[in-house]
Amino acid sequence: MKHHFFLLLLFISVFGFGQKLKPDFKSIEKNLVNKQSPYNYEKLIFKYKAYPKSLDSLEAQYLYYGRNFQKDKVSTLDEDFKTLAAAFKEQNADECIKLGTALYQKDPTNLDILLILLRAYDSKKDASNFTHHVSQFRLLTDAIKKSGDGKAEKTAYLVNSVGDEYILLNILQIGDDFTRGSKPQKDGMLDIWEKEDYKVYIKVLYIDNN
Asked: Rounded to an integer, what distance in angstroms lies between the CA atom of residue 119 and that of residue 96?
């Protein structure tokens, strides 16, 4: 299972580094609730759940960063997620699928949940569900990778959470041999990951959606 999973991450890492697409958060917030907009949340989430490969880069960006404006997000601090994390730690694939699927219905663009489901379906050799969630996972992580180039403060990769940051680090193959420095900003925390002369800038967003 572990072997297959990291092959997956390595495969994902070679995709999605093309044209950059910096998110416009005001536009995202406005269009997600506009029923007439092609970027209305209900329209996008239907395509995402049923046909994830049909979404383009801008639609993926609206879904990923639009999660900041959703009220029913699942937090890693929630008891339901802690129960899921415990099942994952115990390598109980059946329980992970049961609990993870329930949380996925509440928060379908949560990368932490998708990641656990992927591990569980990989363990069960369930190719259909695994492939479907891989498409969703790749869609959302590509949105992150297209938010910047990570080469400077102004072009940092933008992520919704610290958990998403570590998922991105895994995809970028940035490991324990890098050191992290942090710089607080008004709308997030900028992390600078450094190894010798090589630096990667990642910004964890703090968006007030009240």
From this structure: 9
Residues in the chain: 210
Residue holding tokens 């991105």?
168
Residue with tokens 């395509």: 47
**SS3 at position 74:** coil
Q: Rounded to 5 degrees, what are φ and ψ at 118? A: -60, -45
Q: Where are the domains of the chain?
A: 2-145, 153-205
67-116 per-position pLDDT tens digit: 999 888 999 999 999 999 999 999 999 999 999 999 999 999 999 999 99
Q: Look at the pTM and tell me if it is higher than 0.85.
A: yes
Task: Please list, in sequence order, all residues whose beta carbon lies within 8 angstroms of the beta carbon of residue 102, skipping any fewer than 6 positions away.
Answer: 80
Q: Which two tokens stand for residue 7?
A: 């092959």
Type and span of the H or E element at 30: helix 25-32
Helices and strands counted in the chain (H then E): 9, 4
Beta-carbon-side half-sphere exposure of residue 152 (alpha carbons within 13 Å)? 2
Instruction: Looking at 41-161, list the stretches that DSSP marks H as alpha helix, in order from N- to C-terminal side.
Output: 41-50, 57-66, 79-89, 93-106, 111-123, 127-145
Three-point CA angle 111, 16, 120, nearest 5°: 35
